[in-house]
Amino acid sequence: MASLVHYDGSSGFLIDSNVWIDCMDNTSPWQDWAVDQLQACSEQGVLHTNVLICAELLVPGTAPQALDALLDVYDTQRSPLPWQSAALAAAAFRLYRQRGGAKTAPLPDFFIGAHAAVANLTVVTRDATPYRGYFSKLKQVNP
After folding, report:
1. Which pLDDT does position 106 carry in this prediction?
2. C-alpha to C-alpha distances, 72 to 24, 65, 102, 108, 140, nearest whole angstrom
3. Domain for residue 96, yes or no?
4. Domain total in the chain
5. What are the per-10-residue average pLDDT scores of the chain (143 residues)?
6. Please, what's the largest Cα pairwise distance for the chain?
7. 84: domain range?
8. Whole-model pTM?
């Protein structure tokens, strides 16, 4: 399993899908916060997304070209899931099941949290609960 001894979240920001959704949704009460965070974080480091986050954003029918255009506004890097994140996601899922979770497959948040941990990224999210509960050392930006 990957060692997180040197993890400090300083290699950039992994932007959770809820932040991108809030940024795109003119009716979201979180839109201003999301846009402000994207701007502030992009001035401090590199923004990242991964295939799971992009899939979540495409589910409602978002055109891939529109998503690419949004990601390009903030020079967002399309980062592959690190192979080492599989073990961390699996460990989080085992803990979830031990705590009574009913899902039968690892949740996207487990892969996103594991990706951030392995790649030394800070997660920007409106929903801190899954990351706080399963990746307690993970640095986050949230309201």
Report:
1. 86
2. 14, 10, 37, 23, 22
3. yes
4. 1
5. 77 97 94 97 98 94 92 96 94 94 90 96 95 92 95
6. 42
7. 15-101+110-141
8. 0.93
